[in-house]
Design brief:
- There is one protein chain.
- With 209 residues, the protein is α/β, with parallel strands linked by helices.
- It has one domain (4-192): Antithrombin, Chain I, domain 2, CATH 3.30.497.10.
- It is 40% helix and 18% strand.
- Strands 1, 3, 4, 5 and 6 form a 5-stranded mixed beta sheet that branches. Strands 2-7 form a two-stranded parallel sheet.
- A hairpin with a 2-residue loop joins strand 3 (122-126) and strand 4.
- The longest helix has 22 residues, at 40-61.
- The radius of gyration is 17 Å and the shape is globular.
């Protein structure tokens, strides 16, 4: 797991900072390329990638006796989106962290998995109860203000993730001191998710979602 602790720590801090930053109104920089259709066969590859990545992520974060709730899916997608703008040694190390070798094309895999998950919300019958599931995930990148992103990078975000990048309101994005830049375009990933149902739920110690 080369630099897995450093890379994951950088992404997680990026999620916290960006999600709490109140920048939802920032303009999105997005390619006009249409989102690709989902390849059902690629979902299996994405699951294999996430399974392996989740184990590594759990090993890094599940230390001590504290309770832990995490979403490997959100972190994995954020890293994959960032990986789309990486080259050279950075791309190689991110591929290893993500276990990209388990997938024929990690972007195609995550695109298929995301579209599969998007079909899950709805009403389900369990015994004599009808349960309504609401699930919404949002993943985006925040880029340094005034930085020009390459067209190929924005095309990939639109094609495989249905999104783009939003510009930070500041010229310099906050980063953990111990973490190196993950891409030349300096994107900081942020994820947000919302789930709810009428069904009572419980969280187990060191649980993940």
């Amino acid at each position: 797991m080369p630099r897995v602790s450093t890379v994951v720590a950088a992404v997680i801090l990026g999620l916290i900072v960006s999600t709490c930053g109140g920048q939802a109104s920032a303009a999105e920089i997005r390619s006009a390329v249409a989102r690709a259709g989902a390849d059902p066969a690629a979902v299996r590859d994405a699951r294999a990638v996430l399974d392996a990545f989740s184990v590594d992520l759990y090993k890094v974060l599940a230390r001590g006796d504290q309770n832990l709730i995490l979403s490997p899916y959100s972190v994995g997608v954020a890293l994959a989106m960032t990986r789309a703008g990486a080259v050279g040694e950075t791309a190689t190390q991110m591929d290893k962290v993500l276990h990209a070798a388990l997938s024929k094309d990690i972007n195609v895999g995550f695109n298929a998995l995301d579209q599969s998950i998007a079909k899950r919300p709805g009403k389900y019958t369990r015994g004599d109860q009808t349960l309504e599931l609401e699930l919404a995930t949002a993943n985006r990148l925040w880029g340094q203000k005034d930085f020009k992103f390459e067209a190929a990078f924005l095309d990939q975000l639109a094609r495989s993730y249905g999104g783009g990048s939003r510009s930070s309101t500041t010229r310099t994005l906050t980063r953990p001191r111990a973490a190196p830049s993950t891409t030349g375009s300096r994107p900081v990933p942020t994820t947000a998710s919302r789930t709810s149902s009428r069904r009572a739920s419980s969280t187990r110690r060191h649980g993940s979602s």
